[in-house]
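User: Fold this; tokens only.

Assistant: Input:
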Amino acid sequence: MIGILICQIVLSIALASIFLIRPSLTHAASWKILAFIGLCVLPALCLVGGMNTHVQRSEQTQFCISCHVMIPYGQSLYVDDPGHIPAQHFQNHRVPADTACHACHADYTIYGPLKDKMQGLKRIYMQYVSTPPDPAAIRIEGGFKNAQCLHCHLGARSFGENPIHAAMMDSLKSEQTSCLTSGCHDTAHDVANLSQLKMWRPTQ
């Protein structure tokens, strides 16, 4: 995909250069068609291909933790404690390890609903133009929604047959009871205490 995109960009630049140096070529009908392809069609394809490539790259865990303030969140995925929900999901591949952040936070990134897209763009602005916040002070506006958990766990046998989950299923679905603040799964990234926590070291 990237190879095709590079070829399109090079061809667009080459054709644009030709018509910039020799604009008189466009007098002929065949050259007008070629000019339209080189100056309109190919740049549009480059734009679409570039956006698609960026979207795929930005779903990668490595992209998420490339921002300085997100580094502690990436480190917290290695906390050696079953009570740390993100760490256990990551270490046991309950979510794809290479897209772990996106798997659990898709609605809170620039790919979620419009309001969340604006929040995502605000974070990018703070990273590169303004002052990034303290990692321990970062909060998801409106809180973490159960829907992010349920889109994977709902329908899973181990989740549905758990008597605690079964007893509160309706309130979980309606967001009356939070997965994170109900006292059941209340430890997320805990970056404020990261230096005091034991870390898991992968064997490979």
